[in-house]
Design brief:
alpha/beta; 10 helices; single chain; 26% helix; TIM Barrel; globular; 28% strand; 6-stranded mixed sheet; 24 strands; 2 domains; Urease, subunit C, domain 1; 386 residues
Length: 386
Protein backbone atom coordinates (compact mmCIF):
# COMPACT_ATOMS: atom_id res chain seq x y z
CA UNK A 1 0.00 0.00 0.00
CA UNK A 2 1.55 3.28 -1.10
CA UNK A 3 1.73 6.32 1.14
CA UNK A 4 -0.48 8.19 -1.31
CA UNK A 5 -3.38 5.86 -0.49
CA UNK A 6 -3.01 6.37 3.24
CA UNK A 7 -4.53 8.87 5.68
CA UNK A 8 -2.80 9.97 8.88
CA UNK A 9 -4.72 11.46 11.81
CA UNK A 10 -2.28 13.71 13.66
CA UNK A 11 -2.20 16.07 16.63
CA UNK A 12 -4.73 14.24 18.80
CA UNK A 13 -4.37 12.19 21.94
CA UNK A 14 -4.73 8.62 20.73
CA UNK A 15 -6.27 6.03 22.98
CA UNK A 16 -5.33 2.69 21.48
CA UNK A 17 -7.45 0.56 23.81
CA UNK A 18 -4.31 -0.05 25.82
CA UNK A 19 -2.65 3.33 26.37
CA UNK A 20 -3.09 7.04 25.68
CA UNK A 21 -0.44 8.31 23.27
CA UNK A 22 0.59 11.86 22.38
CA UNK A 23 2.57 13.10 19.39
CA UNK A 24 1.52 9.98 17.52
CA UNK A 25 -0.54 9.44 14.39
CA UNK A 26 -3.06 6.81 13.27
CA UNK A 27 -2.22 5.69 9.73
CA UNK A 28 -4.97 3.88 7.84
CA UNK A 29 -6.05 2.97 4.34
CA UNK A 30 -8.68 0.83 2.61
CA UNK A 31 -10.62 0.50 5.86
CA UNK A 32 -7.76 -0.91 7.91
CA UNK A 33 -5.32 0.58 10.40
CA UNK A 34 -1.80 0.27 9.00
CA UNK A 35 0.18 1.63 11.94
CA UNK A 36 0.28 3.85 15.00
CA UNK A 37 3.51 5.81 14.77
CA UNK A 38 5.32 8.90 15.91
CA UNK A 39 4.06 11.90 13.95
CA UNK A 40 7.57 12.55 12.67
CA UNK A 41 7.52 9.18 10.90
CA UNK A 42 4.31 9.69 8.91
CA UNK A 43 5.03 9.11 5.19
CA UNK A 44 5.38 12.36 3.36
CA UNK A 45 2.86 11.43 0.66
CA UNK A 46 0.12 10.32 3.09
CA UNK A 47 -2.91 12.58 3.46
CA UNK A 48 -2.27 14.29 6.78
CA UNK A 49 -5.23 15.54 8.86
CA UNK A 50 -4.45 17.71 11.87
CA UNK A 51 -7.03 17.18 14.61
CA UNK A 52 -5.78 19.52 17.29
CA UNK A 53 -6.05 18.54 20.92
CA UNK A 54 -8.87 16.03 20.47
CA UNK A 55 -9.15 12.41 21.60
CA UNK A 56 -9.17 9.59 19.06
CA UNK A 57 -10.41 6.26 20.41
CA UNK A 58 -11.64 2.93 19.03
CA UNK A 59 -15.20 3.05 17.73
CA UNK A 60 -17.80 1.96 20.24
CA UNK A 61 -19.56 -1.41 20.02
CA UNK A 62 -23.12 -1.72 21.33
CA UNK A 63 -24.58 -5.14 22.18
CA UNK A 64 -28.12 -3.90 22.73
CA UNK A 65 -29.71 -1.48 20.27
CA UNK A 66 -33.47 -1.65 19.88
CA UNK A 67 -33.70 1.39 17.67
CA UNK A 68 -32.56 4.87 16.76
CA UNK A 69 -33.25 7.59 14.24
CA UNK A 70 -36.99 7.30 15.03
CA UNK A 71 -37.24 3.64 13.98
CA UNK A 72 -37.56 0.42 15.98
CA UNK A 73 -35.92 -2.72 14.58
CA UNK A 74 -38.49 -5.10 16.08
CA UNK A 75 -41.32 -3.15 14.45
CA UNK A 76 -39.63 -2.71 11.06
CA UNK A 77 -37.02 -5.47 10.61
CA UNK A 78 -35.54 -4.33 7.29
CA UNK A 79 -32.15 -3.34 5.90
CA UNK A 80 -33.39 0.23 5.58
CA UNK A 81 -34.19 0.28 9.30
CA UNK A 82 -30.75 -1.07 10.17
CA UNK A 83 -29.03 1.52 7.99
CA UNK A 84 -31.00 4.30 9.65
CA UNK A 85 -30.22 2.96 13.14
CA UNK A 86 -26.53 2.65 12.31
CA UNK A 87 -26.42 6.25 11.10
CA UNK A 88 -28.21 7.48 14.22
CA UNK A 89 -25.81 5.71 16.58
CA UNK A 90 -22.74 6.88 14.68
CA UNK A 91 -23.62 10.30 16.12
CA UNK A 92 -22.75 8.76 19.51
CA UNK A 93 -19.50 7.11 18.44
CA UNK A 94 -20.94 3.65 17.81
CA UNK A 95 -19.41 1.97 14.77
CA UNK A 96 -20.69 -1.61 15.27
CA UNK A 97 -23.82 -2.90 16.97
CA UNK A 98 -26.18 -5.80 17.54
CA UNK A 99 -29.72 -4.81 16.56
CA UNK A 100 -31.99 -6.16 19.26
CA UNK A 101 -35.35 -7.89 18.92
CA UNK A 102 -37.33 -8.11 22.13
CA UNK A 103 -40.05 -10.65 22.91
CA UNK A 104 -42.49 -11.02 20.03
CA UNK A 105 -43.94 -13.47 17.51
CA UNK A 106 -41.66 -16.01 15.89
CA UNK A 107 -42.33 -14.33 12.52
CA UNK A 108 -40.54 -11.20 13.75
CA UNK A 109 -37.50 -13.26 14.72
CA UNK A 110 -37.34 -14.74 11.22
CA UNK A 111 -37.80 -11.32 9.60
CA UNK A 112 -34.99 -9.98 11.78
CA UNK A 113 -32.74 -12.83 10.67
CA UNK A 114 -33.40 -12.02 7.01
CA UNK A 115 -32.75 -8.31 7.49
CA UNK A 116 -29.49 -8.91 9.38
CA UNK A 117 -28.26 -11.38 6.77
CA UNK A 118 -28.90 -8.82 4.03
CA UNK A 119 -27.30 -6.01 6.04
CA UNK A 120 -24.17 -8.08 6.63
CA UNK A 121 -23.88 -8.50 2.89
CA UNK A 122 -24.37 -4.77 2.37
CA UNK A 123 -21.71 -3.87 4.95
CA UNK A 124 -22.63 -0.21 5.41
CA UNK A 125 -24.69 -0.12 8.61
CA UNK A 126 -22.20 -1.46 11.14
CA UNK A 127 -24.39 -4.46 11.96
CA UNK A 128 -22.44 -7.34 13.53
CA UNK A 129 -25.31 -9.80 13.92
CA UNK A 130 -28.40 -9.83 16.13
CA UNK A 131 -29.44 -9.87 19.78
CA UNK A 132 -32.58 -11.86 20.59
CA UNK A 133 -33.74 -10.53 23.97
CA UNK A 134 -36.48 -13.03 24.76
CA UNK A 135 -38.98 -14.52 24.30
CA UNK A 136 -37.77 -17.18 26.77
CA UNK A 137 -38.08 -15.03 29.89
CA UNK A 138 -39.52 -15.22 33.37
CA UNK A 139 -42.93 -13.50 33.19
CA UNK A 140 -42.41 -12.08 36.68
CA UNK A 141 -39.35 -10.18 35.42
CA UNK A 142 -40.60 -9.31 31.96
CA UNK A 143 -40.40 -5.52 32.39
CA UNK A 144 -41.83 -3.97 29.26
CA UNK A 145 -41.81 -7.27 27.31
CA UNK A 146 -45.26 -8.46 26.21
CA UNK A 147 -46.33 -11.44 28.35
CA UNK A 148 -48.47 -12.77 25.50
CA UNK A 149 -45.39 -13.77 23.53
CA UNK A 150 -43.23 -15.18 26.35
CA UNK A 151 -42.90 -18.92 25.80
CA UNK A 152 -40.82 -22.04 26.35
CA UNK A 153 -38.43 -22.69 23.44
CA UNK A 154 -38.80 -25.59 21.03
CA UNK A 155 -36.60 -27.02 18.28
CA UNK A 156 -37.80 -24.41 15.77
CA UNK A 157 -36.74 -21.63 18.13
CA UNK A 158 -33.32 -23.18 18.61
CA UNK A 159 -32.84 -23.47 14.86
CA UNK A 160 -33.94 -19.88 14.30
CA UNK A 161 -31.43 -18.57 16.81
CA UNK A 162 -28.48 -20.83 16.06
CA UNK A 163 -28.71 -21.29 12.29
CA UNK A 164 -25.67 -19.77 10.53
CA UNK A 165 -25.59 -16.76 8.25
CA UNK A 166 -26.42 -13.87 10.57
CA UNK A 167 -23.03 -13.07 12.08
CA UNK A 168 -22.68 -12.79 15.85
CA UNK A 169 -25.76 -13.91 17.76
CA UNK A 170 -26.52 -13.01 21.37
CA UNK A 171 -29.51 -14.60 23.10
CA UNK A 172 -30.78 -13.21 26.40
CA UNK A 173 -33.00 -15.65 28.28
CA UNK A 174 -34.09 -16.69 31.75
CA UNK A 175 -32.17 -19.89 32.56
CA UNK A 176 -35.08 -21.20 34.65
CA UNK A 177 -37.41 -20.79 31.65
CA UNK A 178 -35.56 -23.11 29.25
CA UNK A 179 -35.14 -26.90 29.37
CA UNK A 180 -31.87 -28.56 30.43
CA UNK A 181 -29.39 -28.62 27.56
CA UNK A 182 -30.96 -25.71 25.66
CA UNK A 183 -28.22 -23.26 26.63
CA UNK A 184 -25.56 -25.87 25.83
CA UNK A 185 -27.08 -26.40 22.39
CA UNK A 186 -26.99 -22.69 21.63
CA UNK A 187 -23.50 -22.24 23.01
CA UNK A 188 -22.14 -25.19 21.05
CA UNK A 189 -23.70 -23.62 17.96
CA UNK A 190 -21.67 -20.44 18.49
CA UNK A 191 -24.37 -18.35 20.13
CA UNK A 192 -23.43 -16.03 22.99
CA UNK A 193 -25.93 -16.74 25.77
CA UNK A 194 -26.87 -14.24 28.48
CA UNK A 195 -29.09 -14.31 31.54
CA UNK A 196 -31.71 -11.60 31.72
CA UNK A 197 -35.30 -11.01 32.82
CA UNK A 198 -34.77 -13.81 35.30
CA UNK A 199 -35.40 -14.99 38.85
CA UNK A 200 -32.96 -17.88 38.58
CA UNK A 201 -31.46 -19.28 41.75
CA UNK A 202 -27.72 -19.56 42.26
CA UNK A 203 -27.94 -23.29 41.58
CA UNK A 204 -29.77 -22.75 38.28
CA UNK A 205 -27.26 -20.08 37.26
CA UNK A 206 -24.36 -22.38 38.03
CA UNK A 207 -25.87 -25.02 35.75
CA UNK A 208 -26.41 -22.40 33.07
CA UNK A 209 -22.81 -21.25 33.37
CA UNK A 210 -21.67 -24.87 33.01
CA UNK A 211 -23.73 -25.10 29.81
CA UNK A 212 -22.05 -22.01 28.35
CA UNK A 213 -23.85 -18.89 29.58
CA UNK A 214 -21.31 -16.04 29.63
CA UNK A 215 -23.11 -12.72 30.20
CA UNK A 216 -25.64 -11.06 32.49
CA UNK A 217 -27.77 -8.61 30.50
CA UNK A 218 -28.39 -5.11 31.94
CA UNK A 219 -27.19 -5.94 35.44
CA UNK A 220 -29.63 -5.09 38.27
CA UNK A 221 -32.55 -4.52 35.90
CA UNK A 222 -35.24 -7.20 35.51
CA UNK A 223 -33.51 -9.73 37.76
CA UNK A 224 -33.66 -10.90 41.38
CA UNK A 225 -31.69 -8.67 43.73
CA UNK A 226 -28.97 -9.32 46.31
CA UNK A 227 -30.20 -9.98 49.86
CA UNK A 228 -28.57 -11.49 52.95
CA UNK A 229 -29.69 -15.09 52.49
CA UNK A 230 -30.78 -15.05 48.85
CA UNK A 231 -28.01 -13.55 46.70
CA UNK A 232 -30.20 -13.58 43.61
CA UNK A 233 -29.02 -13.06 40.07
CA UNK A 234 -27.35 -9.78 41.04
CA UNK A 235 -25.27 -11.43 43.75
CA UNK A 236 -24.22 -14.26 41.46
CA UNK A 237 -23.35 -11.84 38.65
CA UNK A 238 -21.17 -9.70 40.90
CA UNK A 239 -19.24 -12.62 42.38
CA UNK A 240 -18.90 -14.55 39.09
CA UNK A 241 -15.42 -13.36 38.13
CA UNK A 242 -15.32 -15.12 34.75
CA UNK A 243 -18.64 -13.83 33.47
CA UNK A 244 -19.34 -10.49 31.83
CA UNK A 245 -22.07 -8.04 32.85
CA UNK A 246 -23.62 -5.31 30.74
CA UNK A 247 -24.96 -2.11 32.31
CA UNK A 248 -27.14 0.77 31.12
CA UNK A 249 -25.33 3.85 32.43
CA UNK A 250 -27.97 6.51 31.85
CA UNK A 251 -28.62 7.71 35.39
CA UNK A 252 -32.09 6.15 35.37
CA UNK A 253 -31.68 2.38 35.11
CA UNK A 254 -29.10 2.31 37.90
CA UNK A 255 -28.35 4.38 40.96
CA UNK A 256 -24.82 5.71 40.78
CA UNK A 257 -23.85 3.72 43.89
CA UNK A 258 -25.07 0.49 42.26
CA UNK A 259 -23.05 1.20 39.15
CA UNK A 260 -19.96 2.08 41.21
CA UNK A 261 -20.37 -1.17 43.14
CA UNK A 262 -20.50 -3.19 39.92
CA UNK A 263 -17.39 -1.46 38.61
CA UNK A 264 -15.50 -2.23 41.80
CA UNK A 265 -16.78 -5.81 42.09
CA UNK A 266 -16.17 -7.02 38.55
CA UNK A 267 -12.60 -7.72 37.39
CA UNK A 268 -11.24 -5.33 34.73
CA UNK A 269 -12.65 -6.26 31.35
CA UNK A 270 -15.86 -7.85 32.61
CA UNK A 271 -18.17 -4.81 32.79
CA UNK A 272 -19.58 -3.65 29.45
CA UNK A 273 -21.59 -0.59 28.50
CA UNK A 274 -24.75 -0.98 26.43
CA UNK A 275 -27.29 1.63 25.43
CA UNK A 276 -30.54 -0.41 25.23
CA UNK A 277 -31.45 2.47 22.93
CA UNK A 278 -34.92 3.12 21.59
CA UNK A 279 -36.06 5.09 18.48
CA UNK A 280 -35.63 8.61 19.96
CA UNK A 281 -31.83 8.18 20.12
CA UNK A 282 -30.46 10.20 17.23
CA UNK A 283 -34.01 11.05 16.18
CA UNK A 284 -36.53 13.85 16.60
CA UNK A 285 -39.67 12.11 17.89
CA UNK A 286 -40.38 12.01 21.62
CA UNK A 287 -43.08 9.31 21.39
CA UNK A 288 -43.04 5.89 19.77
CA UNK A 289 -45.08 2.69 19.87
CA UNK A 290 -43.98 -0.61 21.36
CA UNK A 291 -46.39 -3.53 20.93
CA UNK A 292 -49.25 -1.05 20.43
CA UNK A 293 -48.32 0.76 23.66
CA UNK A 294 -47.30 4.43 23.50
CA UNK A 295 -43.86 5.11 24.96
CA UNK A 296 -42.89 8.67 25.89
CA UNK A 297 -39.53 10.30 26.50
CA UNK A 298 -39.75 12.21 29.77
CA UNK A 299 -36.81 13.61 31.75
CA UNK A 300 -34.36 11.56 29.67
CA UNK A 301 -36.25 8.28 30.18
CA UNK A 302 -38.36 6.16 27.84
CA UNK A 303 -41.44 5.16 29.88
CA UNK A 304 -44.86 3.62 29.47
CA UNK A 305 -47.98 5.45 30.61
CA UNK A 306 -47.65 3.78 34.03
CA UNK A 307 -43.98 4.70 34.39
CA UNK A 308 -42.26 1.42 33.42
CA UNK A 309 -38.86 1.94 31.79
CA UNK A 310 -38.85 0.89 28.14
CA UNK A 311 -35.24 0.94 27.00
CA UNK A 312 -33.19 4.12 27.08
CA UNK A 313 -32.76 7.47 25.38
CA UNK A 314 -28.94 7.41 25.25
CA UNK A 315 -26.11 6.45 22.93
CA UNK A 316 -22.81 4.97 24.07
CA UNK A 317 -20.95 8.28 24.23
CA UNK A 318 -23.56 9.38 26.77
CA UNK A 319 -22.85 6.25 28.81
CA UNK A 320 -19.09 6.83 28.70
CA UNK A 321 -19.57 10.46 29.77
CA UNK A 322 -21.83 9.44 32.66
CA UNK A 323 -19.31 6.86 33.89
CA UNK A 324 -16.48 9.40 33.85
CA UNK A 325 -18.28 12.48 35.14
CA UNK A 326 -20.76 10.94 37.59
CA UNK A 327 -19.16 7.67 38.73
CA UNK A 328 -15.50 8.69 38.59
CA UNK A 329 -14.40 5.87 36.32
CA UNK A 330 -11.15 6.85 34.56
CA UNK A 331 -11.63 7.88 30.94
CA UNK A 332 -9.44 5.12 29.54
CA UNK A 333 -11.40 2.47 31.43
CA UNK A 334 -14.79 3.89 30.41
CA UNK A 335 -13.66 3.90 26.77
CA UNK A 336 -12.62 0.25 27.08
CA UNK A 337 -16.03 -0.60 28.55
CA UNK A 338 -17.62 0.72 25.35
CA UNK A 339 -15.12 -0.74 22.90
CA UNK A 340 -12.14 -2.96 23.75
CA UNK A 341 -13.86 -5.08 26.38
CA UNK A 342 -16.94 -5.54 24.19
CA UNK A 343 -14.76 -6.67 21.28
CA UNK A 344 -12.99 -9.09 23.60
CA UNK A 345 -16.32 -10.53 24.72
CA UNK A 346 -17.34 -11.05 21.11
CA UNK A 347 -13.98 -12.53 20.13
CA UNK A 348 -13.34 -9.77 17.58
CA UNK A 349 -9.68 -8.84 17.88
CA UNK A 350 -10.01 -6.59 14.83
CA UNK A 351 -12.37 -4.25 16.69
CA UNK A 352 -12.16 -2.15 19.83
CA UNK A 353 -8.51 -1.19 19.47
CA UNK A 354 -6.27 1.05 17.41
CA UNK A 355 -3.54 -1.27 16.19
CA UNK A 356 -2.09 -2.51 12.90
CA UNK A 357 -4.55 -4.80 11.16
CA UNK A 358 -7.60 -3.62 13.09
CA UNK A 359 -10.62 -2.11 11.35
CA UNK A 360 -10.32 1.65 10.99
CA UNK A 361 -13.31 2.20 13.28
CA UNK A 362 -12.57 5.41 15.16
CA UNK A 363 -14.35 8.03 17.21
CA UNK A 364 -13.05 11.57 17.73
CA UNK A 365 -14.09 13.20 21.01
CA UNK A 366 -13.69 16.55 22.70
CA UNK A 367 -12.76 16.97 26.38
CA UNK A 368 -16.42 16.78 27.38
CA UNK A 369 -16.67 13.36 25.66
CA UNK A 370 -18.90 14.77 22.92
CA UNK A 371 -18.53 13.14 19.53
CA UNK A 372 -16.97 15.28 16.81
CA UNK A 373 -16.61 12.59 14.13
CA UNK A 374 -17.04 8.85 13.72
CA UNK A 375 -15.26 6.69 11.15
CA UNK A 376 -16.39 3.20 10.17
CA UNK A 377 -13.94 1.26 8.02
CA UNK A 378 -12.00 4.49 7.55
CA UNK A 379 -14.94 6.42 6.10
CA UNK A 380 -16.80 9.21 7.86
CA UNK A 381 -20.07 7.87 9.27
CA UNK A 382 -20.80 11.07 11.21
CA UNK A 383 -19.42 14.57 11.57
CA UNK A 384 -16.36 16.06 9.95
CA UNK A 385 -12.71 16.66 10.65
CA UNK A 386 -11.94 20.06 12.23
Amino acid sequence: MSGASLTALCGARIFTGHAMLVRHAVLFGHGTIVDVMAEAKVPGDAQRIELGDRIVAPGFIDLQVNGGGDVLFGAEPTVSTLTRIGAAHARFGTTRFLPTVITGPRAIMHAARAAVAAALGDGRSGVLGVHFEGPFLNPDKRGVHDAVHIRTPDDADRECIAAPGIGIVLATLAPEAVPPGFIAGLSQGGVHVAAGHTNASVEVLRRARAEGLTLYTHLYNAMSQLTARAPGVVGMALVDADAWCSVIADGHHLHEVSLALAWRAKPPGKLLLVSDAMPPVGGTQRTFTLDDRPIHVADGRCVTADGVLAGSAIGLSDAVRYCVQQIGIPLDEALRMASTYVADYLGRGDLGRIAPGACADLVMLDDDIKVIATLRDGALAHGAFP
